């Protein structure tokens, strides 16, 4: 077996040359034996003071950032499960549509799901940490161009599930079916195409959503949903505004 020795002062070029020599040998290694130690993670573990001291500055920095106030909501942003429209859902999809329109001003509506929103926001200050808790996933915004028939399918999914967060779309739910569907203030036309802002999890079929799996086109916007929320709230604050999301009848039960 050949032995190699690297001088610690080796140049970058020399190091990459050494790696090239190693990877060009086509030699494979397999372990002669397997040994492992199982570590139980429970209350019997004692804190490692040295390690805690090592990461303390990072922990303090992270906590300071998560506690940073970036906005204020004048109303509690809640999401009751037994109603078709919620303040939290309206806030969420209004933010998505506003951020999506920065890149694509002709985007017409946005869509999310109640299950994707993990906490409610209480009346008062909004922190970075609040928005991380609201959307803890690494989902990214996407623009989907949908046929009118696909929008109809999406509306039927919304109706069948008792209502989901939307912005730019209005509809009624009658006996579990979608009626009076309008996009960007105009009645839905099956022959038209529409531009939707949503996020990759739903665009990929998450939450059993319907109508999104066969878009005319799809563009990834390169922005995480959480970043969009942070930007939206921060810009409202910079403009001297509080979040004051109301119910406006965008989805109603037709009695």
Automatic annotation (TrEMBL):
Q: Name one Pfam family in it.
A: 5_nucleotid_C
Molecular functions (GO terms): hydrolase activity
According to the UniProt entry, the coiled-coil residues are: none
Q: Where is the 5'-Nucleotidase C-terminal domain?
A: 69-209
GO CC list: outer membrane-bounded periplasmic space
What does the record list as GO biological process? nucleotide catabolic process
Q: Which Gene3D superfamilies match?
A: 5'-Nucleotidase, C-terminal domain (3.90.780.10)
- SUPFAM superfamilies the UniProt entry points to: 5'-nucleotidase (syn. UDP-sugar hydrolase), C-terminal domain (SSF55816)
Which PROSITE patterns has this protein been placed in? PROKAR_LIPOPROTEIN
UniProt xrefs under PANTHER family: 5'-NUCLEOTIDASE, 5'-NUCLEOTIDASE-RELATED
What is the protein name given in its UniProt record? 5'-nucleotidase, C-terminal domain
């Amino acid at each position: 077996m050949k032995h190699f020795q690297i001088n610690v002062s080796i140049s970058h070029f020399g190091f990459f040359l050494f790696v090239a020599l190693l990877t060009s040998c086509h030699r494979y290694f397999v372990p002669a034996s397997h040994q492992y130690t199982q570590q139980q993670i429970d209350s019997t573990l004692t804190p490692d003071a040295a390690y805690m001291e090592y990461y303390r500055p990072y922990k303090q920095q992270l906590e300071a950032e998560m506690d940073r106030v970036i906005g204020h909501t004048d109303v509690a942003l809640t999401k009751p499960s037994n109603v078709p429209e919620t303040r939290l859902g309206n806030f969420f999809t209004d933010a998505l549509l506003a951020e999506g329109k920065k890149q694509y001003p002709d985007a017409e509506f946005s869509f999310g799901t109640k299950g994707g929103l993990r906490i409610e926001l209480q009346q008062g200050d909004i922190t970075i940490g609040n928005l991380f808790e609201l959307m803890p996933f690494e989902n990214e915004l996407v623009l989907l161009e949908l046929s009118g028939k696909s929008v109809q399918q999406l509306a039927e999914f919304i109706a069948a599930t008792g209502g989901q967060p939307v912005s730019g779309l209005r509809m009624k739910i009658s006996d579990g079916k979608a009626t009076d569907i309008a996009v960007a203030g105009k009645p839905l036309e099956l022959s038209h195409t529409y531009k939707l802002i949503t996020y990759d999890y739903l665009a990929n079929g998450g939450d059993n959503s319907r109508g999104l799996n066969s878009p005319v086109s799809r563009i990834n916007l390169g922005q995480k949903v959480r970043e969009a929320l942070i930007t939206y709230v921060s810009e409202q604050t910079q403009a001297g505004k509080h979040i004051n999301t109301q119910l406006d009848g965008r989805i109603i039960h037709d009695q």
